[in-house]
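[step 3/7] inverse_fold.run input=structure_tokens len=160
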């Protein structure tokens, strides 16, 4: 099926910030994430004929982008997406220490899905596609994570 360079360019223009923000924790900063996003889109452009249209174009590019970021971060070692976020996907403690601590305590899969939804701004469908799970599983995982975060934050005395 393939995709067009024009579609990729439009996605890049409209969603660059979300991609950069989503990759920053894996890459170790926004500058490296910027480079990883550019490399991901360059790969997508080179491999555009491989897009089969079985999911969204954005989901396909996200998978490429996370592979690029993981390769750069882990020096080419095979790493599961969940493992990459074990320590990376939390907000800056100086911005919101209570939330950062609460997120650290979440199991890796919940942390990853919270991050993809609230920090990378992906839809349930995009998260499901990226993580190869159903949208219902995304919803259930987010609901459970939100409960855990609310409980942890209320123990810290943080208003919801």
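[step 3/7] decode complete -> sequence:
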């Amino acid at each position: 099926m393939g995709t067009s360079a024009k579609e990729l360019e439009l996605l890049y223009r409209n969603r660059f910030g979300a991609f950069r923000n989503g990759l920053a924790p894996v890459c170790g900063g926004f500058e490296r994430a910027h480079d990883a996003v550019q490399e991901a889109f360059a790969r997508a452009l080179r491999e555009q004929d491989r897009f089969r249209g079985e999911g969204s174009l954005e989901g396909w590019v996200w998978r490429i982008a996370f592979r690029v970021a993981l390769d750069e971060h882990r020096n080419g070692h095979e790493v599961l997406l969940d493992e990459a976020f074990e320590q990376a996907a939390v907000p800056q403690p100086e911005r919101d220490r209570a939330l950062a601590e609460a997120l650290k305590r979440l199991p890796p899969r919940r942390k990853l899905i919270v991050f993809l939804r609230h920090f990378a701004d992906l839809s349930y469908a995009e998260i499901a596609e990226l993580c190869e799970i159903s949208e219902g599983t995304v919803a259930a995982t987010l609901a459970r994570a939100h409960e855990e975060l609310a409980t942890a934050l209320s123990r810290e005395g943080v208003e919801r």
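[step 4/7] annotate
Helices lie at 5-27, 30-46, 57-73, 81-88, 97-104, 108-119, 124-131, 135-155.
Confidence is low (pLDDT under 50) at residues 86-90.
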